[in-house]
Fold this protein.
Amino acid sequence: MSDSRENIPDDAVSDLVRRKFQRDGYVVVRGLCEPALCNLMREQIVASLDPLVGPAEFEADVGYPGAPTSRDGFGGNTPRRLLHAYARHVSFRRWAAGPRIRSHLSVLMDTQDVCMSQCHHNCVMTKHPGHSSATLWHQDIRYWSFDVPELVSVWLALGDENRGNGALKVIPGTHILDIERGRLDRDLFLRPELEENRLLINQAVSVELRVADVLFFHCRLFHAAGKNRSDDIKLSSVFTYHTGANHPIPGTRSAQYPSVHLEPLTP
Ligand SMILES: O=C(O)CCC(=O)C(=O)O
């Protein structure tokens, strides 16, 4: 399962990648996950969908646009995410705590002290045809309670992602935007009826990914996604990272489980 890319030294992660991330709040690295590991994760996910292996979040639980109205109704048993991916199988651990992610994050976060949170994300998004919902414009920091709002999520495509099957859309540069509270609704989604928000949303780009491509994105980057209008399920793993110096606030959901420290690369 290892090849010459397995021990990527930090300085091999290009300056272009770092600068793009700093400027836009996200960067795509093509083909970062080796195909055999992608296949292993996919196999595990498919085996966990029918019969469903919990814990899972259901589309009906979040109630986003297009979601089934209740767990008892039509499509109500559609899972949106398989939770606790890290604990599910060694393939997820190999990926989420592996050298390819670590070498990129140590550059993007400018530290050797990289930790993975087990508390949120740490999941597989399972966007089903038919009953998947659209996710409105938000920043992931709404999920997190940390000393500083500096976390990075790593989104791995385990199949193709495009406009048709609900790929993520992002608004470049919004990770450094100082946004007034009034521009967000009760649930901290951007209010699309406001002219200033509409102007922002008009700058959105769709992040098209192929299997094994990885999107690194900042927790303050505004992003959204559509429904899956294709005939096939869309699968993506998502893990979130912080530096060892950035601690979760005690007593919050972000502090529920200990973070996993990613081992530094040995020369
Ligand atoms: O795939 C989606 O619908 C969006 C997921 C997302 O934005 C999130 O989990 O933060």
Remarks:
- The mean pLDDT is 93.
- The longest strand covers residues 234-243.
- Residues 35-49 form the longest helix (15 residues).
- Residues 14-113+130-244 form a domain with the Jelly Rolls fold (CATH 2.60.120.620).
